[in-house]
Design goal:
There is one protein chain. The protein is mainly alpha-helical and 306 residues long. The protein folds into 2 domains: 158 residues, Cytochrome Bc1 Complex, Chain D, domain 2, CATH 1.10.760.10; 128 residues, Cytochrome c-like domain (Cytochrome Bc1 Complex, Chain D, domain 2), CATH 1.10.760. The protein has 12 helices and 4 strands, in the order αααααβββααβααααα. Strand 2 and strand 3 form a beta hairpin. About 10% of the residues have low confidence. The chain binds heme C (HEC) (2 copies). One heme C (HEC) binds next to strand 1, helix 6, helix 7 and strand 4.
């Protein structure tokens, strides 16, 4: 009995620990993309800023578009062939500068597109992300998914109104820092990936729940923008590791990108029709017109038969 006060103290401490743990877990879950699948509603406070229009029909369409943008693989599942949502690449709902930001881009369209070999509309550009990045099907022009996503993209505002507009594209790694594809050290990329990325994205393309995969069947296909090494490297340098953006230098980002794009991913059937003018970019490593086999793949096959 003389240990009773001690036991009570332990009891209180343990209960406290459980409460803190539960609160922590709740907050963590709230920050992962997975939680969006559960709540089905937008948790982004800044979106109220985006409601530019008085017209309630446009506002309703914008809000539905925001939902599709955040939870694409759940709410637009008919047109999605993997587990990715738009916002997992267009970070922060497309409102982050330089990391696939989509603020004020609508005015550029229709625009010449090298890959398609023609001028395309904003709707066609969104459809292209469905076909490639979402490894799915293009929703028809009149489909609500496309109409609402278009309304969303047309209305989003930057997080900070002070920033220069428009916020477009990816800030690319400068040309003088690009390493020729065959000279990139893929083994170093694997080392860095295992050290800095695998904790979330998994060592074998098997990410933690709520984190998007970077290769394998549930990832973007080989005709997607991120399947190009330099585009992926720019994304990584600007945006990853999540919470530690800009910590990798341009060389490291290219090494990791080469490792990720040496991996197997879904095949985009339309690759043969891409770049009809014939200028296939040097970093399009999955394009047979450019490389009979992915020049980065021997690394995986020869050195890491696990
Ligand atoms: C796997 C990553 C990924 C996913 C998922 C993704 N995109 Fe993209 N998206 C890209 C990349 C890469 C580009 C090309 C950027 C460049 O060329 O610099 C792009 C370009 C775009 C553009 C053109 C941007 C511009 O500046 O003109 C639009 C619009 C767009 N995406 C919308 C969407 C929508 C809507 C979804 C969801 C249905 C989506 N994307 C899903 C990676 C992705
Ligand atoms: C703390 C966890 C975490 C770490 C560490 C991390 N990521 Fe991510 N990554 C994410 C999340 C979460 C997303 C989706 C972004 C969102 O929902 O806002 C993402 C998105 C991505 C995407 C685009 C979506 C996809 O799956 O293709 C790529 C590519 C990527 N990360 C690569 C990397 C690389 C390379 C590293 C290491 C340098 C890294 N990540 C480190 C959590 C992480």
């Amino acid at each position: 009995m003389k240990n009773l006060p001690l036991k009570i103290a332990f009891g209180i401490l343990f209960t406290l620990f459980l409460v803190i743990y539960a609160v922590g877990l709740y907050h963590y879950r709230d920050q992962t993309p997975q939680s969006f699948h559960h709540t089905g509603s937008s948790t982004h406070q800044d979106w109220s800023q985006s409601l530019l229009h008085e017209n309630p029909t446009i506002v309703a369409s914008f809000l539905r578009g925001a939902k599709y943008f955040r939870h694409t693989s759940s709410f637009a599942s008919l047109y999605v062939g993997n587990s990715l949502s738009c916002t997992q690449c267009h970070l922060g709902g497309g409102q982050e500068n330089g990391i696939l930001g989509l603020v004020d881009i609508a005015s550029y369209y229709p625009e010449w597109d090298e890959r398609e070999g023609k001028k395309i509309t904003l709707v066609e550009r969104i459809q292209s992300c469905f076909l490639r990045s979402e490894n799915g099907k293009a929703p028809p022009v009149e489909n609500p998914v496309i109409k609402d996503l278009k309304a969303y993209v047309e209305s989003i505002r930057p997080f900070s109104e002070n920033s220069k507009k428009p916020w477009r594209n990816l800030i690319q790694i400068p040309k003088e820092d690009l390493i020729p594809i065959e000279k990139i050290e893929v083994a170093q990329g694997k080392f860095l990936f295992d050290q800095q990325c695998a904790f979330c994205h998994g060592h074998q393309g098997n990410p933690m729940p709520g984190i998007p995969p970077v290769w394998g069947n549930e990832s973007f296909n080989d005709g997607a923008g991120l399947a190009r090494v330099y585009t992926l490297a720019s994304f990584i340098q600007r945006g990853m590791p999540l919470g530690g953006a800009n910590s990798l230098n341009n060389k490291e980002a290219q090494e990791i990108a080469a490792y990720i794009d040496s991996q197997k991913r879904p095949v985009y059937a339309g690759k043969q029709k891409d770049y009809p003018q014939g200028d296939i970019p040097v970093d399009a490593v999955y394009y047979p017109q450019r490389y009979p086999t992915n020049p980065l793949q021997p690394f995986m096959e020869n050195k890491y038969k696990e």
